[in-house]
Amino acid sequence: MARNVGQLIENTHKMSVTEMRMLRWMCGKTRKDKIRNERIRGFLGIAPIEDKIKERRLTWYGHVMRRPPAAPIRRCLDMQVSVGRRQRGRPLKTWIKAVKEDILDLEIRDGLWEDRVAWRARIHVADPDYVGNVL
């Protein structure tokens, strides 16, 4: 399991490549056929895995934020863990920093998580529409 979000980003890229390999295999196509990824995704009606991961991360964030402030899971968001000295280089990207970036990317207003229906509608990643029966 990845220890920080930087490793998760690298793993997400690997999952994306593997996912496209599987989708091409499902369609009976190879990279030599020179069919764009978007066209294959549209044909199968599957959203990119990065978007689905972002959606699940924000779903969990909304769930945690709707808990009472005294709940243990909510208190963990503000917890600072310091074990010895930090390694050299850039600080590790945390889960909450990744969530904040996702919120900025989707331009979600602060406090929207309080309304579960509006939150889910805003973070939902729709699968692409069917673009035709020929690849």
Major sheet: none
Task: Work out the helix count.
Answer: 6
Low-confidence stretches: none
Spatial gap, N to C terminus: 36 Å
Beta-strand segment tally: 0
Proportion of residues in helical segments = 40-55%
Radius of gyration over all CA atoms, rounded = 19 Å
Average residue-wise pLDDT? 84
Blueprint (SSEs and pairs):
Layout: H1 5-27, H2 37-44, H3 49-65, H4 72-77, H5 95-106, H6 116-123
Brief write-up:
By secondary structure, the protein is mainly α. The protein has helices at 5-27, 37-44, 49-65, 72-77, 95-106, 116-123. It is built from six helices and no strands.
Describe this structure in words.
- The structure is a single chain.
- This protein has helices at residues 5-27, 37-44, 49-65, 72-77, 95-106, 116-123.
- The model has no long low-confidence stretch (mean pLDDT 84).
- It has two domains: 1-46, no CATH class; 48-79 and 91-126, no CATH class.
- The chain is mostly helical and 135 residues long.
- Helix 3 (49-65) runs antiparallel to helix 6 (116-123).
- The two termini are 36 Å apart.
